[in-house]
Structure formats: C-alpha cells, structure tokens
C-alpha cells in the first residue's frame, strides 16, 4: 500500500519531469521555422494551454518515432474517462501523454474587494451566510491524455476541414475581424496600395483610431494583415504600460496571432510569417531570438482564442474529440482546458526585453 508520503513524492517527481520536459522542448524552438510549427500545432489544439500543447507535441512525436502511433501529428486528445464517455477505450500498453492539471481549493470572503479577507475552506467546511465562495488554483498535478489512435471502440465523427482556393480567404472572416476592430473603437480603412501607408501591408494609428490595410494583394494576405493589426489593438495599446516593450516583441506577438488565426481556418501564412518573425525577433537587443519568441506563447494563444471565440466562421477542430460531453463538475471557464484532465500553465522564465517607448504607429510589413 502506498503511503501519503510516497504518493506525494511520486507526484513531485512527475511534476519535476514535466517541467524538465517542457524546458527542453521550449529550448528546441531555436528558429522561426520551429516557432511557426509550434504555433500551427497549438492552433489545432487551442483548447489546451500553450505549454501543455508543447508537452503533447513532443510526447506524441516520441511515440510516433517508437512506432506506437501511426501518425506523426495527433488529431484528438482526451483523458481516459473522457474517451470512455465516447465509447472508446485506451488500448492496452498505450502510454498517455503527461500534462499539467490544476489543483483547486475553495476560498471564502465576506468582503470580496479586500484581497486579505479571503480564507481557504476545508474539504467539508461550509462558508458563512454572508460569505462569497470562489474556487482558485492552488497548485498543479500530473494528468494524462491519449490520442484517438491510442484508443479503440465506437467511431467519432470526422470534423470536415475548410477547403479554399489559392489566395482565397474563408467566408465571413474579413467581416468578423473588421467587426472586432470596430467594436474596439477603430475604423477599418482599405487603401489601394502600400505607398499610402508608408510601404507597409497594414498600419494601426492609435491617434486617429484607424486600422489601414492594403487591398492590392490576395484575400489571404489582407485578412492576415487585418488580424495582425487587430492583435496590435488588443495587445499593444500605448496607454497600457505592459505593452511598452521592444517593438520586435510586439511584432512577433502580432504576427504569431495572425498565424494562429490563419491555421485555425486552414490557411498557410508561414511563407510570410517565418521571415517576418525571424527578422523582428533578431532585432531585440541583448536577447536571443529564441528567448523572444518562446516568452510569448501563452499570451499569443489567449489573444488568438479570444478572437476565434468571437468569430462565427468555419474553423478546424481544436483537438477535443467531437461529441465529448462533461459532467457539471467538469465544466470549465471559456478559454481554459476541458475536463478534469484540464492542464494549467506552469511557471516558466519570462524574458524581460529591452523597453522602448511605443510610437503611435504599428505596421505590418515594415
């Protein structure tokens, strides 16, 4: 029989292994090409945190190389009991992919506005009549997910993939993005060529509250530019002190969001994104390009997810098996991982790039 101390030690060992695996995987993002591959993968597993996406990626890749799974890229992943909900069973001998999952606790307060008033409730402790109760994450634990190819049983519905002609943008994508820009108080202006906006593909002017996009390029390029500028509006308002970072970081973040939105719609924008990200990441003084791009992963994912959630366009699957239902106790807030196996974001070092004053303009293509 395993004692509490032995169980705790085993759990800590697994968490340490996860942190080491994550650190090694992040360090492997040494080029713009690697970063783009990671973002494209994350776009197809966007219901998972960025760090857990990387963990799934590297473990599935190892399973494929060992001949344990038939495909180099997973399609749908879920927990053991979640697969059972769908009438499928994990095959004997198939090892799950270890990820981070949250450990939560209940906290109560009679004055929620006062941070010091909150106190943690015991497992069966009831709150007082005048208290508000909220659940918060207090730690992390290891959990496991399996790819659909590691399971057998009832078939799951195949999610259709968008089919687009070369250079064609998905129906409704431009309108949906433009509506989000306008909802933030900016006017979308279409210009005939780059010469009207200083040689850029797009430009965000925080003074006039205008987002300009050139129209003498393909539809794909136009929507990619528009989402790039929308990312600037959402993430890099000059009034926000957190946005006052090196322009190279801002451009990497905005273009990474554009790539994720494109990938979620079946678009390939890597031909533009790779040199763009590589150029701007290299421009950050005293910081290695890999350090710049790896520090933005979860921030990019959350921004992209917020944009996608407000679109009614046809999007590729997000990594959660179609038809999966959850018990009420398993339901989670939008933008977080699903189910009891839902991972959380572990602490990783954050790069502190050179700070530079934010200018009025932020353009794509300059």
Question: Which key terms come to mind for this protein?
Answer:
four-stranded antiparallel beta sheet; 10 helices; Arc Repressor Mutant, subunit A; single chain; four-stranded mixed beta sheet; single-stranded DNA binding; alpha+beta; IrrE_HExxH; ArdC_N; about 375 residues
Can you characterise this structure?
- About 10% of the residues have low confidence.
- The chain has ten helices and ten strands.
- Strand 8 and strand 9 form a beta hairpin.
- Helix 2 packs across helix 7 and helix 7 packs across helix 10.
- The relative contact order is 0.18.
- The chain has a domain of about 140 residues: Arc Repressor Mutant, subunit A.
- The chain is globular.
- It has a four-stranded antiparallel β-sheet with strand order 1-5-3-4.
- The longest helix is centred in the N-terminal third of the chain and has 24 residues.
- By secondary structure, the chain is of the alpha+beta class.
What is the CATH third-level topology name of the domain at 173-309? Arc Repressor Mutant, subunit A
Give the radius of gyration.
Answer: 22 Å
Helix content: 25-40%
Beta content comes to 15-25%
Distance between the termini: 64 Å
The counted number of beta strands is 10
Tally of helical runs: 10
**Apparent shape:** globular
CATH architecture of the domain at 173-309: Orthogonal Bundle
**Major sheet summary line:** 4 strands, antiparallel
Query: At the first level of CATH, what is the class of the domain at 173-309?
Result: Mainly Alpha
Strand order of the largest sheet: 1-5-3-4
Average the pLDDT over all residues and give the rounded result.
79
Structural class: alpha+beta
Question: How would you spell out the order of helices and strands?
Answer: HHHEHEEEEEHEEEHHHHHE
The low-pLDDT segments are 326-361
